[in-house]
Amino acid sequence: MPETVGFVGLGVMGRSMAARLLAAGFPMRVHTRTRSKASDLLRGGAVWMEDNAAVAASSHAIITMLGFPEDVEAVYFGANGLLARVQTGALLIDMTTTRPSLSVRIHEEAARRGLRALDAPVSGGDIGAREGTLSIMAGGREEDFNAAQPLFRAMGGRIVFQGGPGAGQRTKLCNQIAGFGSTLGACESMAFAMRAGLDPAKVLESIGAGAAGSWALSNLAPRMLAGNFAPGFMVKHFLKDIRLALEEAQILGMQAPGLSLALELYARLEREGLGDQGTQALFQALVNSKNT
Amino acid sequence: MPETVGFVGLGVMGRSMAARLLAAGFPMRVHTRTRSKASDLLRGGAVWMEDNAAVAASSHAIITMLGFPEDVEAVYFGANGLLARVQTGALLIDMTTTRPSLSVRIHEEAARRGLRALDAPVSGGDIGAREGTLSIMAGGREEDFNAAQPLFRAMGGRIVFQGGPGAGQRTKLCNQIAGFGSTLGACESMAFAMRAGLDPAKVLESIGAGAAGSWALSNLAPRMLAGNFAPGFMVKHFLKDIRLALEEAQILGMQAPGLSLALELYARLEREGLGDQGTQALFQALVNSKNT
Question: Do B214 and A214 touch (CB under 8 A)?
Fold first, then answer.
């Protein structure tokens, strides 16, 4: 019988990831701040736990999928936190995109307590989570990564061990850095097309498949042109990742001109009340911009 | 028998494009500043002309593939220029990436003289030119575009009429704007991976196929990681296009934060003597950067 899996954090991503594990036959113990978000999982056989400590005490592996580094800090290091309450030998897997140094601290504290820990953030969005095709980028000890493979395979399509503690997080930040560039390119190029009086759909036909091509141009540009700014990925979450990456670039002592621009542009969108829109909202700002 | 085609400007791109036309059976008249660049074409049956005026006088359609807007200006408007020397009814096709307003001027002057003109810049690089798979973005009168189809089909795989005079140029600028974004993303993300001590090839495995994916990440990142900075597309030519796009954004009164950053970063590379390297040279600058 497979080991019991605890899951903490049932937002849009976490809910779908937990559902994949449940469908794969793992007995599940779940908790999240808003119980109603667990209802589908509970109907499917997951067991509700009253708090994180109860999840910790009853599971062999615990997966967390939270919001901000502060949430991760509280859930792991709080008085009733996972690190204090988990069974000896348990495997803690944080799949939140968070601060690499926080992942390192979790690893260190886990090791001190005879526990195992992995950082394993994902990309692929809500669709990848639902379909079990996420890209999972893992950091920690390779033997723990190998032990987690059955869990990862239930959730991911591309599962890569990236190195020691924090390497999963740093890889995810690479993903966000590349993603910002191509999103900027798609938004600015489509805004330019509109302002120049071109037919942006025809422009996409000319430029989408060549050396300027990107996932953003193929997937986000048609949404922006249709006036669809619903989030695949929210401005406010992107901004969190941009700040984490900039912080890390600072620690590494390297220049990150793209990230600096990303912070400027996306912080402005959030100030303008667009934090809950998708990252393609940048198009709107540029198409309406005035160069004075 | 197909009509005679003149070709002016036999650089890396022009040479391959003229070779495709020759292979498609068009009788060719050619001229370029350095005669040796025409030798393969002449062996293949193209006829050398002593100057542009001689090309103009002996061809029904004349294609130009030049370097900078100043070159286009001289070749079209000079005393011995194409506009003055071409046969009545001839079709002038400028495939150089140049200033949209210059394309508009050529169209206007051509119309005044009973000639036809198209702007038809391309993307797809030296490989696309050799293989005849270029993306051709055309502006002008649609009937002239239709007349040019047999020529375009010999050189291009994706051939789209984008609108009136200058629309081809503006579309090409959209291509460069999107291309800068994804190139920046690829360079900065790989530089971050290196500086963070990750294995960049593994990082590419995790991030290359998802929402951060782009042609630049798939094609330029492996080159930069292999220390290959040979040009697919040269820094100095990219810089020309960035300046043209910024100039146009200024005319349109829109903000173009990506283009402003592109100018800053690529002008710095050129000042550092990297003008003849490929656009992926930005990776080198970032990976070696210090954040003081």
Answer: yes
Bridge partners of A30? A7, A48
B181 and A214 in contact by Cβ < 8 A? yes
Say which of A37, A172, A202, A240 is annotated catalytic: A172
Helix axes B235-252, B100-112, angle to 10 degrees: 80
Chain A nearest CA to B82, separation (Å): 28
Query: Distance between CA A150 and CA A144 in Å, rounded?
Result: 12
Question: Does residue A292 sit within a domain?
Answer: no
Tokens linked to B90: 């001839």
- Taking the C-alpha atoms of residue A207 and residue B159, their distance in angstroms, rounded to an integer, is 11
Domain termination site, one of A99, A129, A164: A164
Phi-psi region of B48 (alpha: psi -120 to 50; beta: other; left: phi over 0): beta
d(CA B21, CA B24): 5
Q: What's the CA gap between A68 and A75, in Å, rounded? A: 11
Q: Cα distance from A81 to chain B (closest Cα, Å)?
A: 30
> What's the one-letter identity of residue A105?
R
How far apart CA B188 and CA B216 sit, in angstroms, is: 12
Q: Nearest CA of chain B to the CA of A13: how many Å?
A: 15
DSSP state of B87: P
**A205 and A130 assigned to the same domain:** no
Please give the share of chain B, as a percent, with pLDDT higher than 90.
96
Q: Is A172 a catalytic residue?
A: yes
- Quick check: B197 and A123 CB within 8 A? no
Tokens 């540009």 — which residue?
Answer: A221
Tokens of B70: 């100043």
Q: Do B137 and A249 touch (CB under 8 A)?
A: no
Distance (Å, rounded) from C-alpha A20 to C-alpha A151? 9
Q: Within 13 Å, how many C-alpha atoms sit on residue B82's CB side?
A: 33
Can you give the pLDDT at residue A291?
Answer: 86
Q: Which domain holds residue B229?
A: 171-287
The predicted complex's ipTM stands at 0.96
Reported pTM: 0.96
B152 with B208, same domain: the answer is no
Q: What pLDDT is stored for residue A286 in this prediction?
A: 98
Tens digit of each residue's pLDDT (9 = 90 or more) over A17-72: 999 999 999 999 999 999 999 999 999 999 999 999 999 999 999 999 999 999 99
User: Distance between CA atoms of A243 and A249, rounded to whole angstroms?
Assistant: 10
Q: Enumerate the residues of chain A whose CB falls inside 8 A of the CB of residue B205.
A: 158, 160
- Chain A CB contacts of B246 under 8 Å are none
B136 is a domain residue: yes
- What three-state secondary structure class fits A210? coil
Q: Between A and B, how many CB-CB pairs are < 8 A?
A: 298
One domain, residues B250 and B160: no
Cβ within 8 Å, pair B189-A181: yes
Is there a single domain that holds both residue A154 and residue A186? no
Please name the member of B161, B179, B257 whose beta carbon is closest to the beta carbon of A211.
Answer: B179
Q: Among residues A113, A132, A164, which one ends one of the domains? A: A164
